[in-house]
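Entry 0007
Protein: Cytochrome P450
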Amino acid sequence: MADMDKLDISQLQASLVKDSSVATINILLSLVSFWLVYSTLAYIPSRVIRHIRKRASAWSYLLNGPRLIREGYERSNGEPYEVLAPDSRYLFVSSPKHIKEIDTAPDTVLSLNGAAKHMLQPLYTMSGFNWFERRGVEGVGFVRTLRTLLTGNLPQTLPDLSLTTKALFAELHERHPEVNGVRHSPIYPMMIELVVKLNGLALFGQELANNEEFMACALPYVEQTLLTAEIVKLLPKLLRPVVGGMLGCHLNAHRKFFEYLIPAAQLRCQERDLKNLGHEVPKRADCIQWLVDTAPKQKPWTPERVIYELMAIWFGSVHILTTTIVYALHDLCLHPDYIDPIRTELLSQYADFERAGHGLPLLDSFLRESSRLTPVESMSTRRRALQPFTFSDGTALNVGDWACSPSGALMRSEAHYGPSAQQFDGFRFVEPSVLDRLEGGHSGGGQPMAGRASKKQPAKLTDVDSAFLMWGYGRMACPGRYYAAAFMKVVVGQIIMNYDLKLVEPGAPRWMTWRAAMLPLGKTMVMFTPRGA
Ligand code: HEM
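Output (C-alpha cells):
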C-alpha cells in the first residue's frame, strides 16, 4: 500500500513537471503567435482590416440575425442602419415615414418578388420556374385568390378543418411515448404534421389532401427548398448554377410535388376552356380553381404556370403557420392563467366563429401578443432594389441591396408599446368592453385580466400597422392573413378545448436562430392531457 502511495506520488510529480513544461511551451507559443499576428496586422492597411471585420460580421449574421438587427435598431435612434449578410446588404428603416416609402416605391425599383426570388432560388428549387422580379408581369391573381376567395370560403372550410384537427391531433398524440403516465409530445414535429395536412386540405381540396403519396412530398418539398436555397445563396456566384443544378436534381421533392399537381391543374384548365365555349363544368372551390379563374383573361395561364404559383403559396404558408402556432402553444404553457378565460370563450363562441370565419377576441389578442413577443421573423417589408433607390433623408440603396424593417425590435419597443413592452399581456389588444364583461364573469385563476400591466391597444390579429409588422405593411401586406388567423384559431382552439397542456421543461431553450428567423427546437416536449380523462 505504502509502495503504491510512493509510486502514485512520484508519477504525479513526474506528470506535474511534464504538464508544467507543456504549459510553459504553450504560453510561449501563444505569445509568439500573438506577436506575429499583431506585427503582421500593423502592416495590413486599415481598410483591409475593416473589410475583414465586415465580412466576419456578415457571416455571424447567419447565427445571430435577430440580435444584430435588434442591436442596430437600439443604436440607430430611429435612423436607417445597415446589417450585412454574406449574400446581401440589408438597409433597415424603422420610422413610419420610411416604411411608407418602401411601400410606395414602384415595384420596378423595390421588389418583394425580387426578395422572394433571391430567398427561394426558384430556378433550382421550383422545377425551373424563373419567376419575374417585377410584380404583375403575368397578373397578380393570387392576391384575389387568397385575400378574397379563400377568406370568403372560410365558413365552408373551417368545420372540416376543426374535425380534422381534433381527429389527427388525437392520433398523433397517441403515438407519443408515456413518461410516468403522461405522454410527452415533441411539439414542433407534431404541429408540422398537423399543419401540412390541414393546409393541404384547405388549399388543394379533399382529393389531393387524401393522396398519401402527394402529401408525402409536400413537406420534403418545403424543407429541401430551404436547404438548397441556403446553400446556393452562400456559394460564390460562379458555382451556383453547377451546385444548384446538382442539388435540384438530387433533392427532387419539388419535381414530385409538381408532377402530382399537374393532372389537377390540367383538368381545371380544360374545364376553363370548355366553360368559355359555353359548356357546363363542375363547380369547384379550392386554390387551384381560384388561381385558374383569376389569371389574366387575355393571356390565360398554362397548368404549369398555375402550379408554380401554388408551389410559392404552399412554401410561404406551411412553415410560418406551424412556427407561429408552436410559439402560441409555448406561451399558453408559460402563462397558464389565460387558458381558462380563452377556453370559456371558445366553448361559448366557437360555433359562431366557424360560421363567420372570424371572431374569438380573447384568443385573437393572445395570438397577436404571442407573435409580437416571439415573432418568427425579425425582419419585414423586404424589398430587393432592382434599381438604385434613395430614401427621403438621402440614404441610398444600390442594385441588389434590400430595404426592410426591424419588425421584431419594433414590436418590442417601449416607444410603441409603453413601459410594459417586454411583458406578456395576452389581452393587451382586447376591446375594453370585452374585458369589462370578462371582469364581471370568469377571469381565469381569479386574476383581474383587465387590470394587467399594460395600457390597452385594441387591435385585431389581422390588423397591419407600422408598429406591428408581422404581416408586412401596405399594398403588399400578407393576403393570406385572414385565412392564417382563422387557421391558427382552429388549431389552438381545438387543443385548448380538448386538452390541458404543460411544457416538460419550461426553462429550457425553445428555439435557435438562422438569419432573421427564430426556428423552434424539435426536442421541446409538451404534455397534453386529454380533458376529462
Ligand atoms: C402566420 C402566418 C403568416 C405570416 C406571419 C405571414 C407574413 C407575411 C409577410 C410578412 C409578408 C410580406 C408582406 C410585405 O413585405 O409587406 C407576406 C406576404 C405574403 N403572404 Fe403571408 N404570412 C402568413 C401566412 C400566409 C398564408 C397562410 C398564406 C397563403 C395561404 C400567405 C401568403 C402570402 C403571399 C402570397 C404573400 C405575397 C404578397 C404579395 O406579393 O403581394 N401567407 N406574408
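Curator remark: The first strand starts at residue 81 and ends at 84. Residues 1-7, 442-448 have pLDDT under 50 and may be disordered.
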